[in-house]
């Protein structure tokens, strides 16, 4: 049984208003209807980078396997040490990393030990070599604060039988190392999400072709390609689709049959929406929203057959903002990620006045800098028009301005959302 709600249920909710959808509400609605892909594949850990674990990874061993030394020095019995003076002990051998000392230390004995070597039987503590003086087969060692000093305990990193990584975890470089440290060479991950996308618009021309009067190059398909590729999706670029009912209908039918997710840009604003709306009503179940955000007001979300559909605005900055604020999280959920953390924001001083009218959440593009006092500040990139794609190229962050905020004076503290990590 699916736990996800249907779109029908959502659009009947008391607080559902397609003409003024707050950003968090839109996120919540989308989240409620998402179910992760089910197919799982087993991959060598190297190939699992950027994929999502489909099972808990249980540690088959303790990491480290044995108590071992964190220092080069002398393994001793803590009970032999003197709190206020040096203790003199007999050296009975050496323990190397990978080559343990075979014997057992009796009272009054110590073992020369290297970093990473197993702590010999009988010993419980290591005195670093800088605090030891050797004279023939004797060593005088200083006191240490407690038993176990300078040793790493068996299982202190990971305990045998515990989940080292959870189902739903996105595999990052540290995880590859962690899996290797457990001796695990293969893991189960969800299959890649297949995402089909196309641009709509009679004015659009592909790169490499000359521009005619009134035409512009199709840039959205390239940003969308980049954002999807960074998210580890399998992409299906369907090109530019002309604004005719036949072409659009065919493209939607083809895309939804081939992919888990269909993303389009353009064609969802007032005027154009009616036209696309009729087609989508025939093919699936789609909700058209006016989200209370800037840029990126019009957006469509729905299902066409089994495929999820995101109809993004046409303006190039709006495409990116809606992708990062809605689509990214939705794709992560569909990929099986369960540990998706909210993108961190931080509060910094904005050094310039900010133009804004109350009523919508704004995602202005900002440039961060670090002053001589070490404090970070932000300033808007300049023209915040939703067609100014260079603002996204220059930006380090979104300056997130809440709905109710109006114009801000220079020196106001604002929330910024870093693009690093997001993109
Ligand atoms: P629309 O939502 O289709 O009305 O488009 C809004 C604005 O975005 C118009 O100025 C379009 O020319 C522009 N636009 C739409 N699609 C693209 C695209 N793929 N690449 C660049 N600009 C686009
Ligand atoms: Mg258009």
What does it look like?
This protein is α/β, with parallel strands linked by helices. It folds into four domains: 7-38 and 191-334, Molybdenum Cofactor Biosythetic Enzyme, Chain A, CATH 3.40.980.10; 41-61 and 165-190, Molybdopterin biosynthesis moea protein, domain 2; 68-152, Molybdopterin biosynthesis moeA protein, domain 3, CATH 2.170.190; 345-418, Beta-clip, CATH 2.40.340.10. Helices cover 20% and strands 30% of the residues. The chain has eight helices and 26 strands. The protein has helices spanning 7-11, 23-32, 173-181, 220-230, 245-258, 272-283, 316-334, 390-394; strands at residues 40-44, 57-58, 68-69, 73-76, 87-95, 109-113, 125-128, 132-135, 138-141, 151-152, 163-165, 186-190, 194-200, 204-205, 216-217, 234-241, 261-265, 285-290, 293-294, 298-304, 307-312, 345-350, 361-370, 376-380, 397-401, 413-418. The strands form seven sheets. Strands 7-4-6-5-9-8 form a six-stranded mixed sheet, with no helix packed on it. Strands 16-13-17-21-20-18 form a six-stranded mixed sheet, with helices on both faces. It has a five-stranded mixed β-barrel with strand order 22-24-23-25-26. β8 (132-135) and β9 form a beta hairpin. α2 (23-32) packs parallel to α7, α4 runs parallel beside α7 (316-334) and α5 (245-258) packs across α6 (272-283). The longest helix is centred in the C-terminal third of the chain and has 19 residues, at 316-334. The relative contact order is 0.12. The model has no long low-confidence stretch (mean pLDDT 93). The site of magnesium ion (MG) has 6 residues, from loops.
């Amino acid at each position: 049984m699916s736990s996800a709600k249907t779109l029908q249920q959502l659009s009947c909710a008391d607080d559902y208003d397609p003409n003024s959808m707050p950003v968090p509400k839109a996120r919540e609605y989308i989240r409620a209807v998402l179910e992760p892909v089910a197919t799982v594949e087993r991959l060598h850990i190297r190939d699992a980078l950027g994929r999502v674990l489909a099972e808990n990874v249980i540690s088959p061993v303790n990491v480290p396997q044995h108590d071992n030394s964190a220092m080069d020095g002398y393994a001793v019995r803590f009970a032999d040490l003197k709190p206020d003076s040096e203790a003199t002990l007999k050296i009975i051998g050496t323990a190397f990393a990978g080559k343990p000392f075979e014997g057992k230390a009796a009272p009054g004995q110590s073992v020369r030990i290297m970093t990473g070597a197993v702590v010999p039987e009988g010993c419980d503590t290591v005195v670093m070599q800088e605090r030891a003086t050797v004279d023939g087969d004797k060593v005088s060692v200083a006191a240490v604060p407690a038993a176990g000093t300078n040793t790493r305990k068996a299982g202190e990193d990971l305990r045998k039988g515990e989940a080292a990584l959870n189902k739903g975890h996105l595999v990052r470089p540290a995880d590859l190392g962690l899996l290797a440290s457990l001796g695990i060479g293969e893991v189960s991950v969800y299959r890649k999400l297949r995402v089909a996308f196309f641009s709509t618009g009679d004015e659009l021309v592909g790169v490499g072709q000359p521009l005619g009067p009134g035409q512009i190059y199709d840039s959205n398909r390239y940003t969308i390609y980049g954002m999807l590729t960074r998210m580890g999706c399998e992409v299906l670029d369907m090109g530019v689709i002309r604004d005719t009912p036949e072409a659009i209908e065919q493209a939607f039918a083809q895309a939804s049959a081939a992919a888990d997710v269909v993303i389009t840009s353009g064609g969802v604003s007032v005027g154009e929406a009616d036209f696309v709306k009729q087609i989508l009503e025939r093919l699936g179940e789609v909700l058209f929203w006016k989200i209370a955000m800037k840029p990126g007001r019009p957006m469509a979300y729905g299902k066409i057959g089994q495929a999820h559909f995101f109809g993004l605005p046409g303006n190039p900055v709006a495409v990116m903002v809606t992708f990062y604020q809605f689509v990214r999280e939705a794709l992560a959920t569909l990929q099986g990620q369960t540990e998706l953390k909210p993108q961190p924001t931080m509060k910094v001083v904005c050094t310039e006045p900010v133009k804004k009218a109350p009523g919508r959440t704004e995602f202005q593009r900002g440039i961060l800098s670090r002053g001589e006092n070490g404090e970070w500040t932000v300033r808007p990139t300049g023209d915040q028009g939703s067609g100014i794609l260079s603002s996204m190229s220059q930006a380090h962050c979104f300056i997130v301005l809440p709905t109710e905020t109006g114009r801000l004076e220079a020196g106001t503290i604002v929330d910024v959302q870093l693009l690093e990590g997001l993109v």
